[in-house]
Amino acid sequence: MKHYFLITYDVADPKRLRKVMKTVRGYGDRVQYSVFLGQLSEKDEAILRGKLKDKINHSEDQVILIRLGPVDGSSKSAPDNWKILGVPYEVKDYSVMVY
């Protein structure tokens, strides 16, 4: 089962920052400068954590992954329940389309 994840980071070194950003953008959509929203399975989360572990300085940098709830919309954490001020956020449909 996939879950929505809020992924945010604070990286001290510009070189490491670029590496972290490039890694995270492969797993979600940027919603703000250092904040991404992704739809990850448990396997995806483990792979992402493994990749990021080697890219950060553990005494200077921080990456936070927050599980928001299942993508299927069965919880109060679904996008329809989010409160957003200002520009609305449009959730992309990640379902597979077959023609």
Helices, strands, pairings?
Elements: E1 3-10, H1 14-25, E2 28-32, E3 35-40, H2 42-53, E4 62-70
Antiparallel strand pairs: 1-3, 1-4, 2-3
Question: Explain this structure to me?
Answer:
This protein has 99 residues and is an alpha+beta fold. The chain has one domain (3-81): Alpha-Beta Plaits, CATH 3.30.70. Helices cover 24% and strands 28% of the residues. It is built from two helices and four strands. The protein has helices at residues 14-25, 42-53, and strands at 3-10, 28-32, 35-40, 62-70. A four-stranded antiparallel beta sheet has the order 2-3-1-4. The longest helix is centred in the first third of the chain and has 12 residues, at 14-25. The model has no long low-confidence stretch (mean pLDDT 85).
Task: Summarize, please.
This protein is α+β, with helices and mostly antiparallel strands and 99 residues long. Helices cover 24% and strands 28% of the residues.
Helical coverage, percent range: 10-25%
Number of strands: 4
> Regarding CATH, which class?
Alpha Beta
The average pLDDT is: 85
CATH topology name:
Alpha-Beta Plaits
Outline the biggest β-sheet. Answer: 4 strands, antiparallel
Strands of the largest sheet, in order across it?
Answer: 2-3-1-4
Q: Can you tell me the overall shape?
A: globular
First-to-last CA distance: 24 Å
Which runs of at least 5 residues are low in confidence (pLDDT < 50)? none
Report the C-alpha radius of gyration, rounded.
Answer: 14 Å
Number of helices: 2
Supply the helix-strand structural class: alpha+beta
Q: Quaternary state, please?
A: single chain
